[in-house]
């Protein structure tokens, strides 16, 4: 779905809500649960530049082991993102507002 995503954590630390609201990213949200074909047991979400792009072209680092929850005005995706050069994952949340770019 087309949506605007607001990143709520940076390097595992909460982003002030004013800063998060000022830095929304628009794209096509693709989320999936476990993928039996690729034998991927993780739930994942990607923000892509178009519905036809693959996850290699994600605008944001993918969100892994994610869960979603409906909140006022949208959806909150909670999970973790990989840290380059670090096998650990840092906490991440996205606030997702569905709809065409305003």
Structural features, described:
The protein is mainly beta. It has one domain (2-98). Helix content is 6%, strand content 54%. The chain has one helix and eight strands. The protein has one helix at 17-22, and strands at 2-7, 9-10, 13-14, 25-32, 44-48, 63-71, 74-83, 86-98. A six-stranded antiparallel barrel has the order 1-4-5-6-7-8. Strands 2-3 form a two-stranded antiparallel ribbon. A hairpin with a 2-residue loop joins strand 2 (9-10) and strand 3 (13-14). It is globular and about 40 Å long. The mean pLDDT is 84.
- What is the count of β-strands? 8
Helix content: under 10%
| Beta-strand content bin | over 45%
Continuous helix count: 1
**Order of strands across the main sheet:** 1-4-5-6-7-8
The helix-and-strand class reads mainly beta
User: What does the average pLDDT come to?
Assistant: 84
Q: Shape from CA axes?
A: globular
Q: Show unreliable segments.
A: none
User: What profile does the largest beta sheet have?
Assistant: 6 strands, antiparallel, barrel
The string of secondary-structure elements, in order, is EEEHEEEEE
Number of domains: 1
Report how far apart the termini are.
15 Å
Radius of gyration: 13 Å
């Amino acid at each position: 779905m087309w949506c605007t995503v607001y990143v709520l954590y940076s390097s595992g630390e909460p982003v002030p809500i004013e800063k998060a609201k000022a830095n929304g990213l628009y794209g096509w949200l693709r989320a999936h649960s476990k993928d039996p074909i690729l034998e991927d047991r993780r739930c994942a979400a990607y923000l892509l530049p178009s519905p036809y792009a693959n996850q290699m072209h994600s605008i944001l680092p993918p969100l892994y082991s994610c869960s979603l929850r409906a909140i006022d005005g949208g959806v909150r995706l909670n999970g973790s993102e990989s840290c380059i050069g670090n096998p650990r994952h840092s906490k991440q949340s996205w606030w997702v507002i569905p709809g065409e770019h305003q």
